[in-house]
Amino acid sequence: MVWIDLKRVPVALTIAGSDSGGGAGIQADLKTFAALGVHGTVAITSITAQNTREVRAVQDVSVDVIKAQIEAVVSDIGVDAAKTGMLHTSEIIEAVSEEISRYKIPLVVDPVMIAKSGAPLLKEDAVGSLIRRLLPVAKVVTPNAREAEVLAGVRIGSVEDARRAAKLIADMGPEGVIVKGGHMEGSESIDILFYQGDFIELRAPRLESRNTHGTGCSFSAAITAELAKGKDIREAFRVAKDLVTHAIMYGIPVGKGHGPLNPMASLYNESERYATLMRVVEAVRILEGIEDARKIAPEVGINVAMSLPYARDSHDVAAVPGRIHLVGRKLKATSYPEFGASDHLARYILTSRLYDREIRAAINIAYSDENLERLASMGLKVSWYDRREEPGEVKAREGATIPWGVRVAVERAGRVPDAIFHRGDWGKEPMIVLLGRDAVSLAEVVRSIA
Ligand SMILES: Cc1ncc(COP(=O)(O)OP(=O)(O)O)c(N)n1
Ligand SMILES: Cc1ncsc1CCOP(=O)(O)O
């Protein structure tokens, strides 16, 4: 949940370049500030003609206008924390350092050097100015491994090297140094914070995505937003790692190169919570209204589940705790839907979404040839997996059967089918699981089958 202080909305300032593609620079920063409930202000340093593939042109803003933008914002609105992004030349770095030093604003420095597309965004001869003029006035510096190599003058090939570099950079003045591991090898993305003599390491599974443009910008903007709220560096670090991981998971697939990450993913998720829960409530109402549900109710009960649009795990999936059971001929839900109440259906949905992001809902019904025939007669695509063919190493891993089964069924069908069934195994009841975009539409399909 984003807690917003309505009496005094925190204000953050980004001193950075504009990205015409809307993925990095001030555009990413403003989205990130907004997602974290902070009012964003800007001082544009350069205008770039940029898209997901390349930087075509750069026009630097005059240092007088850069300083005037900072002055205008600070003198009237007030700034709780600021960050820097693209500072193209020594002249710009020196002007920003001078202006920021006039006010006692906590400053986050993202030492932007090279765009994801490979274009230099910091002139080579300006690295010295960054080290001499900006790092001493910074509260936090957030280099990626390649930028940290340039600043610290050491090669980074391991977490140990990253720790050494963080210490060397801390000697240049900032209170906290975060070396990001996004550009390094390995199955995890490991970021390291060096602060007050201690290291904190945050890990996240490395996500395979092309849509990561603006990652560094959003990360440093999230740190800035949290500092603007008065949060401690360590807490800001956790929020930023979490926001960026979610934003990469749901990167925006636009353009032919690296599309932008989506810093709004968490915010959109939160905004859909109530509507999603209400779709499950409505679906339950439809199921409870079925006159004779005996042919569709499995022994273990029915559940109906629906995920948030930017779901990360089963906590972002709403369903009925205790499921929906047959009482006489009718179905009765044991309780009111909640997030995190599904185990099986959540896994069906979350795995299906790896193939098709539109899939958000699932309902399980009893397996029978008759029910399969009804689905086929409705023109729905049905696929299946056989639990007896499950490889030993999958069986040995808790919770791995359904993701494996869904993959098998999707590959067999060539797309996410409308229903997946299995014929059971020792202690496992055979089952049909319907998949789709919306819990209510699926409940209507179940009503037709019944
Ligand atoms: C105007 C502008 N500022 C910063 C960048 C860097 O963004 P990107 O290329 O995506 O690299 P990271 O954000 O991941 O460091 C840019 N391209 N343009
Ligand atoms: C046992 C079972 N297998 C597939 S769906 C299902 C029932 C619903 O399970 P959950 O309530 O965990 O989503």
From TrEMBL:
GO molecular function, one term: phosphomethylpyrimidine kinase activity
GO-annotated cellular components: cytosol
Domain named Pyridoxamine kinase/Phosphomethylpyrimidine kinase: residues: 19-262
Catalytic reaction list: 4-amino-2-methyl-5-(phosphooxymethyl)pyrimidine + ATP = 4-amino-2-methyl-5-(diphosphooxymethyl)pyrimidine + ADP; 2-[(2R,5Z)-2-carboxy-4-methylthiazol-5(2H)-ylidene]ethyl phosphate + 4-amino-2-methyl-5-(diphosphooxymethyl)pyrimidine + 2 H(+) = thiamine phosphate + CO2 + diphosphate; 4-methyl-5-(2-phosphooxyethyl)-thiazole + 4-amino-2-methyl-5-(diphosphooxymethyl)pyrimidine + H(+) = thiamine phosphate + diphosphate; 4-amino-5-hydroxymethyl-2-methylpyrimidine + ATP = 4-amino-2-methyl-5-(phosphooxymethyl)pyrimidine + ADP + H(+)
Residue ranges of every copy of the Thiamine-phosphate synthase ThiN domain listed in the record: 280-447
EC code(s) of this entry: 2.5.1.3, 2.7.1.49, 2.7.4.7
GO biological process, one term: thiamine biosynthetic process
This protein's UniProt keywords: ATP-binding, Kinase, Multifunctional enzyme, Nucleotide-binding, Thiamine biosynthesis, Transferase
Function, in words: Catalyzes the phosphorylation of hydroxymethylpyrimidine phosphate (HMP-P) to HMP-PP, and of HMP to HMP-P.
Family: In the N-terminal section; belongs to the ThiD family. In the C-terminal section; belongs to the ThiN family.
Protein name as it appears in the record: Bifunctional thiamine biosynthesis protein ThiDN
